[in-house]
Design a protein that fits this description.
With 112 residues, the chain is mainly alpha-helical. The protein is built from one helix and no strands. The chain has one helix at residues 4-111.
Length: 112
């Protein structure tokens, strides 16, 4: 057996190493906690940016829908105007025909 002094020295040395290991472990845990905190903060910023981008995408989609509705209204208006122009052209042709008939009738009265 080892003398009492050596046993005390050995126990003291092992206790010192255990305390040193625990201090190193505590430092690593503290550093890990800082890294996790920074990562959490970074993820929070990313989520905030994603939320803002999502809102912008919704705004663009809404504006595109409004433009689409406006375009549909313009197309309907142009179609209506085109239809009206066709009716006017048909009426003009009818008037031209009636005018030609009237002119022919007037010519007949002049000669008779």
């Amino acid at each position: 057996m080892a003398p009492d002094g050596e046993l005390v020295d050995s126990t003291s040395h092992e206790s010192g190493q255990a305390v040193e290991s625990m201090n190193e472990g505590a430092k690593e845990v503290e550093e890990g906690t800082k890294v996790i905190s920074e990562a959490s903060s970074t993820f929070s910023e990313i989520l905030k940016e994603i939320s803002e981008i999502s809102q912008q995408v919704e705004n663009v989609a809404s504006a595109a829908q409004e433009l689409s509705s406006g375009s549909e209204e313009v197309a309907a208006s142009v179609e209506e105007q085109s239809s009206t122009m066709e009716e006017i052209a048909a009426s003009a042709q009818e008037l031209q025909g009636a005018s030609d008939k009237l002119f022919q009738e007037l010519k007949r009265f002049k000669y008779e």
